[in-house]
């Protein structure tokens, strides 16, 4: 078969030759693309997961500005409740104020050293506190300490009856108030 015979065949059957060429091209494309099925499936799954995350982010973004302002307000409130470890006079004044409000007698109050190797923004400011007074007044002191302006954690306590005949009790506390070093 010569080229003139081939041209005559194409002119005689143009639709059949066109279909044969398209079929051969589709077969070649199918063969070439069959090796990429696994990679395409992985890419499809990754894109689907990313789209699901984006849809979830858009859905969860409702009210985001209000939530941000609320969190910022709570952060400011938290910072206002923090004790500064370096302000010894202000820190001790907190306990003296509790003394007058609860009618107990502060026997001893000392701010202990804050550990130096703290790498966080907040740390416990340690105190040793001893008070004396009637049982209801001492319990009121503990209640005010627990529910007061600063966040409090009591590490150890010693509760004993005073030696006098007045019915007073002594309370010795080792505690930490949440603060900034």
How would you describe what is shown here?
- The protein is an alpha+beta fold.
- It folds into two domains: 58 residues, no CATH class; 98 residues, Alpha-Beta Plaits (2-Layer Sandwich), CATH 3.30.70.60.
- Helices cover 54% and strands 23% of the residues.
- Strands 1, 2, 3, 4 and 5 form a five-stranded mixed sheet that branches.
Rg computed from alpha carbons, rounded to a whole number of angstroms = 40 Å
Helix and strand succession?
HHHHEHEEHEE
Q: What is the level 1 CATH name of the largest domain?
A: Alpha Beta
What value does the average pLDDT take? Answer: 86
CATH topology of the largest domain: Alpha-Beta Plaits
**Could you name the ranges where pLDDT drops below 50 across 5 or more consecutive residues?**
none
Q: Residue share in helices?
A: 40-55%
Shape descriptor reads: rod-shaped
Mind describing the biggest β-sheet? 5 strands, mixed
Terminal Cα separation, in Å? Answer: 96 Å
Tell me the domain tally: 2
CATH architecture classification of the largest domain: 2-Layer Sandwich
Class per helix and strand makeup = alpha+beta
Number of strands: 5
Tell me the fraction of residues in β-strands, as a range: 15-25%
CATH homology superfamily of the largest domain: Ribosomal protein S6/Translation elongation factor EF1B
Specify the number of helices.
6
């Amino acid at each position: 078969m010569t080229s003139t015979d081939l041209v005559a065949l194409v002119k005689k059957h143009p639709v059949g030759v066109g279909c044969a060429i398209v079929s051969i091209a589709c077969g070649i494309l199918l063969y070439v693309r069959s090796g990429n099925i696994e990679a395409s499936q992985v890419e499809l799954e990754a894109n689907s997961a990313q789209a699901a995350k984006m849809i979830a982010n858009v859905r969860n973004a409702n009210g985001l500005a209000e939530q941000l302002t609320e969190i910022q307000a709570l952060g400011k409130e938290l910072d206002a409740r923090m004790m500064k470890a370096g302000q010894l006079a202000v820190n001790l004044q907190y306990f003296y104020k509790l003394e007058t409000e609860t009618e107990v007698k502060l026997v001893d109050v000392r701010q202990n050293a804050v550990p130096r190797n703290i790498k966080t923004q907040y740390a416990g400011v340690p105190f040793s506190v001893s008070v004396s007074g009637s049982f209801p007044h001492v319990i009121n002191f503990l209640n005010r300490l627990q529910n007061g302006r600063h966040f409090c954690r009591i590490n150890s306590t010693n509760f004993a009856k005073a030696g006098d005949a007045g019915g007073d009790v002594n309370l010795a506390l080792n505690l930490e108030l949440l603060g900034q070093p």
